[in-house]
Design a protein that fits this description.
The chain is an all-beta fold and about 120 residues long. Helices cover about 0% and strands about 50% of the residues. The strands form two sheets. Strands 2, 4, 5, 6, 9, 10 and 11 form a seven-stranded mixed β-sheet that branches. The protein has a four-stranded antiparallel β-sheet with strand order 1-3-8-7, with no helix packed on it. The radius of gyration is 13 Å and the shape is globular.
Length: about 120
């Protein structure tokens, strides 16, 4: 059974930064495609960023390009989302997702999801 546990959310002021972490169980983490999604109140869950297995490729939603960075540490079975220059529109529950296959960063299904971590950006 794969488990994903997010951490690092919280309250931050506009212009601030946060780093989200997602710790994954499973022996084949190194082969997984990992993604971050977010869901704001009353809205659908949206793609934020994704990272493939090696050779690493990353992809981002247009709304976060240049501000957010996704990375992974296979030795720690952890994927990160560094979020800079945050603004109130980034307020949402952020979810980590994993899929055992796929060398692409846009589209595709994710088999496993975390419980989410709240990010709130005050104006």
């Amino acid at each position: 059974q794969v488990q994903l546990v997010e951490s690092g959310g919280g309250l931050v002021q506009t212009g601030g930064s946060l780093r989200l972490s997602c710790a994954a169980s499973g022996r084949t983490f190194v082969d997984w495609r990992m993604g971050w999604f977010r869901q704001a109140p009353g809205k659908e869950r949206d793609f934020v960023a994704a990272i493939t297995r090696s050779p690493l490729r990353t992809g981002y939603a247009d709304s976060v390009k240049g501000r957010f960075t996704i990375s992974r540490d296979n030795a720690k079975n952890t994927v990160y989302l560094q979020m800079n220059s945050l603004n109130p529109e980034d307020t949402a529950v952020y979810y980590c997702a994993a899929n055992p296959s796929g060398d692409y960063v846009y589209g595709g299904e994710y088999s496993y999801w975390g419980q989410g971590t709240q990010v709130t950006v005050s104006s």
